[in-house]
Every structure is written in structure tokens, then in C-alpha cells.
Design goal:
By secondary structure, this protein is an alpha/beta fold. The protein has one domain (about 5-260): Purple Acid Phosphatase, chain A, domain 2, CATH 3.60.21.10. The chain contains 6 helices and 15 strands. The protein has helices at about 30-40, 60-70, 90-95, 135-145, 170, 180-185, and strands at about 5-10, 50-55, 80, 110-115, 115-120, 125, 130, 155, 190-195, 205, 210-215, 220, 235, 240-245, 255-260. The chain has a 6-stranded mixed beta sheet with strand order 4-5-8-9-11-10, covered by helices on one side. It has a 5-stranded mixed beta sheet with strand order 3-2-1-14-15, with helices on one face. β1 (about 5-10), α1 (about 30-40) and β2 form a beta-alpha-beta unit. α1 (about 30-40) packs parallel to α2 (about 60-70). The two termini are about 20 Å apart.
């Protein structure tokens, strides 16, 4: 029988506004988050960790972070949080003082052991800017963190994707120094996954031979406009989250990523009725 994997649930781009308000004047992101938390609670086995990969709030206000905390309160699972371009470091650090962020007032980086693997979380936000960049201190911290072991697999989370998606207005906001990240990855082969957010769409590619994903959002999606045919826009599509499953094995094991739709879709239902003949 296959050994139970380590399960890391990823949710992203919550865009919580002050209570009673709507994001972009039309999206109830708080209600979307309530549905997302309910979906996480239905997962069995329970995730070993839930990562929120940025844009917890829409404008980085203290009252928005308080609203996020209230909405997250029913989630009875270990939790890790990193900022996105819609967040602000100081109020986020103040709202979650119990988080194991690196000390000081700079980037909110952290590394968490989860059983036999390490979960590494990078702050790719640039204060006041929509694009992402890993600062020199963060790059040094990442080099040291990944270099601290040659035996433990590692999964890496950040907000800004370190690759192009083909959606032009989002690609202008991606990780500007993805080459610096790739150079570190080449030196530390224990990394098994690079997981981002920001684009609100389930997306997959490969970087330096490692799977790289973008997590969908629980609320709205960025318009899939690969031809620059329309102004930047959002669409309402089935919301979702990612469930990353790490399985032990050679070469630091294997990661399988599942898209989990948010909502009650019925089931599970058996493929055959009780009276059907079995093969």
C-alpha cells in the first residue's frame, strides 16, 4: 500500500476588503473565502499545512487584515502566510505576530519543517509596486536555507510566478529576477516544487526540471487573453485551490498537484450500484 503523502493545501489571492465592501465593486471576496475554508475542512485526509500565497488583502489596510484573521479563524489546520503585491508588510507582520517570519522589518520569508520535508516561503513583494522581485537579502537567505540540508526535500512558495504565462499584462508583473532564482535552484537539487499565485489561474510549466505551478483563486480569475485582444479584465469561473501531495522516494521524492474545485458538486458516488456485477 502506498505510504500516505505529505499534503500541502495552497490557497491564493484572497483580496479581502473591509467588512461589507466588495472588491472591484462587484466581488464578495469574503463570501468566497468562507466557501474556500469550508472546502478545506472537507478534505480527507486533512492537509498537513495550508499555505496562503499572497494577496491576503486588497489594499493592505489593518482593518482588512483583521477581517482576514476572522475569516481564517475556523480553519483548524497549520497555516503559513506570505504577502503579495496587494499586501503591506508592516500591517501584515503586526496582524500575524505568531508567524515565524525572519526577524526585522524586511521581507516576510520563512521556512517550516513539515514531517520529512521543508516548506520554504519567499516574500517576492516590492512595496508600492505590482511586480515581484527577490531582494538581495532574500536571495542570500534562500541560498543558506536550501543549503542547510542535502537530504530533506523542499517545496518553494512565493506570490509572483517566475515564468511567463502569455497573459501580457500579468507577465509584466511577474518575478523580475527569475534568473537569480533559477541559479539558486540549479545549485540545490532538493527542491521538488515551485508554487506561485498572482494570476488567479491554474497554470503549469517546468523550471530547471522542476514543476512550477500557479494556484487558482477562490473568487475571480484573470481573463485568459493570450492574444492581447482585450483590456486587462477579470472573469468569474469555477473557483479552486491546489493540493500538493509529496510522496517519498528516490531523488527527494515526487510531488503531484491536484486542482480542487471549491463548492458542493455532489458525491462521491460509486461507479456501480450494489446489485451490479463486479469485473
Amino acid at each position: 500500500m502506498t505510504e500516505r503523502p505529505i499534503l500541502i493545501a495552497q490557497i491564493s489571492d484572497l483580496h479581502i476588503v473591509r467588512p461589507g465592501a466588495l472588491a472591484y465593486g462587484s466581488i464578495d471576496t469574503a463570501a468566497a473565502m468562507v466557501r474556500c475554508i469550508a472546502q478545506l475542512a472537507r478534505l480527507a485526509p486533512r492537509p498537513d499545512l495550508v499555505v496562503v500565497s499572497g494577496d491576503l488583502t486588497d489594499t493592505g489596510l489593518a482593518e482588512e487584515y483583521e477581517h482576514v484573521k476572522q475569516l481564517l479563524a475556523p480553519l483548524d489546520m497549520p497555516l503559513a502566510l506570505i504577502p503579495g503585491n496587494h499586501d503591506a508588510r508592516a500591517p501584515m507582520r503586526a496582524a500575524f505576530p505568531e508567524r515565524a517570519y525572519e526577524p526585522g522589518s524586511g521581507a516576510l520569508n520563512q521556512a517550516l519543517p513539515v514531517g520529512p520535508i521543508d516548506v520554504v516561503l519567499l516574500d517576492s513583494s516590492v512595496p508600492g509596486e505590482p511586480h515581484g522581485e527577490l531582494g538581495a537579502d532574500t536571495l542570500r537567505w534562500l541560498e543558506a536555507t536550501l543549503g542547510s540540508s542535502t537530504t530533506r526535500p523542499a517545496l518553494l512558495f512565493l506570490h509572483h510566478p517566475p515564468f511567463l504565462t502569455g497573459i501580457g499584462h500579468m507577465d509584466r508583473q511577474n518575478l523580475r529576477n527569475a534568473g537569480d532564482l533559477a541559479a539558486i535552484i540549479r545549485r540545490h537539487r532538493r527542491l521538488r516544487l515551485i508554487a506561485a499565485g498572482h494570476v488567479h489561474r491554474a497554470t503549469l510549466t517546468v523550471i530547471e526540471g522542476i514543476a512550477a505551478t500557479i494556484c487558482p483563486a477562490p473568487n475571480h480569475a484573470v481573463d485568459l487573453d493570450l492574444g492581447a485582444l482585450r483590456p486587462p479584465a477579470f472573469v468569474i469561473e469555477p473557483p479552486g485551490l491546489h493540493l500538493h501531495a509529496w510522496f517519498p522516494g528516490a531523488d527527494f521524492g515526487t510531488v503531484v498537484t491536484h486542482f480542487v474545485p471549491i463548492g458542493d458538486w455532489g458525491g462521491p458516488r460509486p461507479f456501480r450500484g450494489s446489485g451490479d456485477k463486479q469485473p
